[in-house]
Write a structure and sequence with these properties.
Shape: globular
CATH architecture of the largest domain: 3-Layer(aba) Sandwich
Strand order of the largest sheet: 3-2-1-4-5-6-7-8
Structural class: alpha/beta
Radius of gyration: 21 Å
Helix content: 40-55%
CATH topology of the largest domain: Rossmann fold
Order of helices and strands: EHEHEHEHEHEEHEHHHHHHH
Bound molecules: nicotinamide-adenine-dinucleotide
Number of helices: 13
Number of domains: 2
CATH superfamily of the largest domain: NAD(P)-binding Rossmann-like Domain
Number of strands: 8
Length: 287
C-alpha cells in the first residue's frame, strides 16, 4: 500500500487525509496538537490513518508528502528541512500553501528540486481542483509525479507554467471578492443579495463553462471576437477598489446575515458540502 505523510491536521490536512485514505493510501497524519488522536477517531474513523506528533517521523518511508501546516514562511522552512531529511530523493514534497511561492519555501533546501505547491480549494476532499505550481528549481519529474498522484485520486490537477503570488485560483478570487466588498461598501447591494445574485448567475455558469468558454458562447456563433467588439467594447467603466478603513460595516453585515460560532459553522459547512456533492453528481464528476 502506498504511504502518504500529511503534515498538519487542520481544516485542509483533515480533508487531504480523507481523500488519500479513501483513495487507497495508508495515511501518516502529523500534528503536535493534543487532540490529534481524537480527530482521527471522530473525523477519520474507519480509514487507514495513523497519528504522529512529529512531521519527520510521519514522513519516514513515505511515497508522497502533502504539507498543510500553518501559513508562515519561517515555519515552512523549518518543516521542509525536517521533511527533506526524512524522505528519499524521489519523494515529492508538496505544500498546500495558498499564497507562499514554492521558490520561497524551497529556498536553501537540498530538496528544492522536489518541492512544489499542490494547492487545493477548501473543502480539499470535495473540490476537484489542485493547482500544481513549480518553483524555480522544481524538476519536471516531480511535477509529473504530483499530477499523476492527484489525477489518480480523482482530482482535477491543473499545472501552472510558472509561479506567481496567489497562483491563479486565488488571484481570480481576490479580484472578485474585492469587487463584492466594494459594491457592499458603496451601498449598491446587501451582502446577502450579492451572494444570491452570484449563485443564480456566475456561480452556476462557471460550474458548467469557464470564463473563456462562456465568453465564446456569449458572442453567439461568431464567438469571442463578436462579444469583444459588441458588449465588451462598452465595458470601459472604472470598477473601483474596496476601502480597507470601511471593512467594519461589511463584517457586521455578513455577521448579521449568516452568524458565527461553532453551531452556525457546522450547519454552514454541512449545507455547503451537501450542495457541492449534488452539483458534482449532476455534472457526473463525483466518481
Ligand atoms: N483554509 C483554507 O481555505 C485553505 C485552502 C487552501 C490551502 N490552504 C493552505 O493549507 C495550509 C493549512 O491551512 P489550514 O486552513 O488547514 O490551517 P489550520 O490552522 O486549520 O491547520 C494548520 C495545522 O498545522 C498544525 N501544525 C502546527 N505546527 C505543526 C508541526 N510542526 N507539524 C505538523 N503540524 C503542525 C496546527 O496544529 C494545525 O492543526 C496553509 O498553508 C494554507 O495556506 C488553506
Amino acid at each position: 500500500m502506498a504511504r502518504v505523510a500529511i503534515v498538519g491536521a487542520g481544516v485542509i490536512g483533515v480533508g487531504w487525509a480523507k481523500l488519500f485514505a479513501r483513495g487507497g493510501w495508508a495515511v501518516a497524519l502529523a500534528d503536535p496538537r493534543p487532540d490529534l488522536e481524537q480527530i482521527v477517531h471522530d473525523d477519520l474513523s474507519g480509514l487507514s490513518v495513523t497519528a504522529y506528533a512529529q512531521a519527520g517521523a510521519a514522513a519516514e518511508g513515505a511515497d508522497y508528502v502533502q504539507e498543510a501546516g500553518p501559513e508562515r514562511l519561517e515555519f515552512k522552512h523549518r518543516l521542509f528541512a525536517e521533511l527533506a531529511a526524512a524522505t528519499g530523493d524521489d519523494v515529492v514534497l508538496a505544500s498546500s500553501s495558498s499564497s507562499l511561492l514554492p521558490s520561497a519555501i524551497a529556498h536553501g533546501s537540498p530538496a528544492a528540486d522536489r518541492i512544489l505547491i499542490g494547492h487545493p480549494f477548501n473543502p480539499a476532499d470535495l473540490m476537484p481542483l489542485v493547482e500544481v505550481v513549480p518553483g524555480e528549481q522544481t524538476c519536471d519529474a516531480a511535477m509529473d509525479r504530483a499530477m499523476e498522484v492527484y489525477r489518480d485520486l480523482g482530482k482535477t490537477p491543473i499545472r501552472l507554467k510558472r509561479e506567481i503570488p496567489g497562483f491563479v485560483g486565488n488571484r481570480l478570487q481576490k479580484v472578485f471578492n474585492d469587487q463584492a466588498i466594494y459594491l457592499v461598501q458603496q451601498g449598491i447591494i446587501a451582502a446577502e443579495d450579492l451572494d444570491d445574485l452570484v449563485k443564480a448567475s456566475l456561480g452556476l455558469r462557471w460550474a458548467t463553462v469557464g470564463p473563456f468558454e462562456g465568453m465564446n458562447l456569449g458572442g453567439g456563433p461568431a464567438g469571442i471576437r463578436h462579444l469583444m467588439e459588441n458588449v465588451g467594447s462598452q465595458m470601459t467603466f472604472d470598477i473601483g477598489a474596496p476601502d480597507s478603513s470601511k471593512m467594519g460595516m461589511v463584517v457586521q453585515e455578513v455577521d448579521a446575515a449568516y452568524g458565527t460560532g461553532e453551531q452556525k459553522y457546522e450547519q454552514g459547512v454541512t449545507a455547503r458540502d451537501d450542495k457541492t456533492r449534488k452539483i458534482l453528481h449532476a455534472l457526473g464528476e463525483d466518481s
